[in-house]
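[SOLVED] Need 3D model of a two-part complex

Original post:
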Amino acid sequence: MNENSTYAVEAHDLVKVFPRGNVRALDGVSFHVEEGTILGLLGPNGAGKTTAVRILSTILGPDSGHASILGHDVVKEAETVRRIIGLAGQYAAVDENLTGRENIRMVGRLSHMSWKASGARATELLESFGLSDAGDRVLRTYSGGMRRRLDLAAALVARPPVLFLDEPTTGLDPQSRQDLWGVIENLVAGGTTVLLTTQYLEEADRLARNIVVVDHGRVIAEGTPATLKANLGTSVVSITLRDNDMARRAALLVSSLSAKEPIVDHNIVELTVEDGPKVGAEVLRTLDAAEVPIGGLALREPSLDDVFLSLTGHKSEAETEAERAARLGRAKGAKHRGDDPSDAGGRDAA
Amino acid sequence: MTAVVAPTIGAPISSGHRLRWMFADIFTITWRNLLALTRMPGAMFFSILQPIMFVLLFAYVFGGAIHIPHLRYIDFLIPGIFVQTVSFGSTSTAVGLCEDLQKGLIERFRALPMARSAVLAGRTTADLTRSVFVVALMTGVGYAVGFRIGTNVGLFLCGCLLVLLYCYALAWSFAGVGLSAPNAETAQVMVFPIIFPFTFASSAFVQVASMPGWLQAFAKNQPVTQVVNAARSLMVGGSVHDTRAVWLALAWTIGLLVVFIPLTVRKYRRVS
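Solution:
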């Protein structure tokens, strides 16, 4: 045990290549989480977030690099690590045919708690997650939000000091998401360290003290939510044109209106700017003068998409075809990307 | 380190302690699988109905056309039905394991401090437990349609034990299929083409001597025939007494376990 370690979670230069499709899921990822804080691991589908969590939770071995939890190496001391971590997954790994109580109890028993202690803990957790009434119902009857809460409750049975939450709110309605956020905040207030992966900037913004942004298996940015947002403009001007040719033409015409390069996606041009309404008006004037017909114009707040586009949009090397095919094939629900080379940044975050 | 860290972390675990927890983990997974089974009464009903229908089909529809020298067909049939029923039942090992993998449950198990072997051992033990009930039930059904033990209760129970041991070996073999299949539906259809020829091109329902020569060569030398002949020898005896088959059946069963347990465990370790 390394007593010099000051971080609850440390990842050093993690590399993981999946032979199928030769995907470099992780390509030298390093980060650390301070004890008693939340780190948000942010990235689009297939960025490598889940792979990182699986390595840190001893499910998968890294090809190279190393990682430790509270000073325990995830490969050499995997068994010790398993006793100090909790894992709640994106796909709600709970048993459909068991009741809520039985699910928690099963995880308690497999965490080597006594039958009695795991039963008492189940009652306690069901109560604090608002599932007391549903505790003796089979999970098939649970709603999506209830299932996620139970999944999280099961991860907490053995009171792990370090918790991994892999996209805990993906697919949840806003109210359930808010509820779950409250639960996570309470845990951290109680001293738990949390590594949270998410596709939602809003979620990372609300919960995390620090954010690490990954894409293509690499860390492309890190810092506090405030620093990351400061690198972005305050609004996005989105212009819809007739087709891709027209969009490229429009992008050239309006590029001088923003400090950042316009991003073309099929027939849509987007500009990230400080003063949305003013630039919007100028866009209309400029395109009108050049006789470029406009299909639509909209102003909106920057989204996670914009963070990625602004972080990766200027990358010199484009994503290779093989990488793209492998990623689109693997990432569930990934949408097809635009073929424009300037769009290499990523559009598949829901 | 904060107070939430349990004091036992990093402390060495004795091998006795480890072994005790391994059995506790196997028990927990077995408990969970059996519990899940009781939550699917429909599936349970039909899995019980199917072997009963086989008994009725062969006893009353085909039975009249099959002549076994010196033996009533029902006495010939029931040991065969035992083996057929547990063989068909072992598809559920493949399907269940595949479902656990699909739903991410095995992912959760891997991040827990439980014994690695417990997921597989718990699944096969649960399926074995179910087969114990099925064999007991089939004995009752057999008695209802006229089957009688020709040896004695002790030997009959030995026959049941042999069938159950074979069932356990099959469960381990098909567990590997379940881990390789892309989804539960595929796991089901992958297992069936293996089970079907072995079960029907055997001595389970008809005498091997009634088959064409090329098929006899296969039927005589495959495990189902040996296990059926052994079960028949122990349960019925008399004209079908066959000590050699008992030893061969045991050899086959132990051989299957020796080959497939390590293969399946290796597959489980690799699956990600």
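Edit: Residues 314-350 of chain A have pLDDT under 50 and may be disordered.
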